[in-house]
């Protein structure tokens, strides 16, 4: 099997990580493209002492690290709004802490693997993750709309949201109900399933809502392949069911990290 064939199954997920890290599909994909170009240019430098997924993320980390992320992604005069928003927060939280949070909570790496990827000792990863969550939670607050037709899952999500100090505007189980609730009480964040109670689509519900106003969205689904298609647009934040609570907490923290309505004064 060629190196390209080994890496192909992992590309949608490194793209997800890149989007979550940068806040935009444009910037995230630019880093992934640079990562693949580096691998093609020097395949002999690809880490072969670890599994292909870990090697791919390691190469991405090297590209990301070379871009001076201490001051954010360099987007020039056309820097995306989420990156400008992030500048208000980056002074308060280090990129390494955010990387540790995303690699463990969203991407599912062990503390040992995350330590290898970001170049720290394994015990430090746990500290970095705790620091990141604490600081992001301190800076952000939102009212959250939950679009989920499974009562137990909806209750679990509501508990997670409230445990993080956020409010819940409501729980919707159909497309029409979701749109009506969003119009009645505008949320600052949406958590959305894809398949809803009346066979309507959470994707369509989100499209209807976004046609009225901008709001960060996290999709939580058992069918990630329906969204990770490689076509534009793809969701910046996507969680696969069954999920870990830590994964949802990390995604909420990152989504609000880039949201203008929660920028600290």
TrEMBL record:
What CDD domains does the entry give? REC_PhyR
4-aspartylphosphate modification sites are: 193
**Does the keyword Phosphoprotein feature in the UniProt annotation?**
yes
One Pfam match, by short name? Response_reg
Instruction: Give the Response regulatory domain ranges.
Output: 143-256
Q: Which Gene Ontology BP annotations are present?
A: phosphorelay signal transduction system
Superkingdom of source:
Bacteria
Record-given protein name: Response regulator
Please name the taxonomic classification of the source. Answer: Bacteria, Pseudomonadati, Pseudomonadota, Alphaproteobacteria, Sphingomonadales
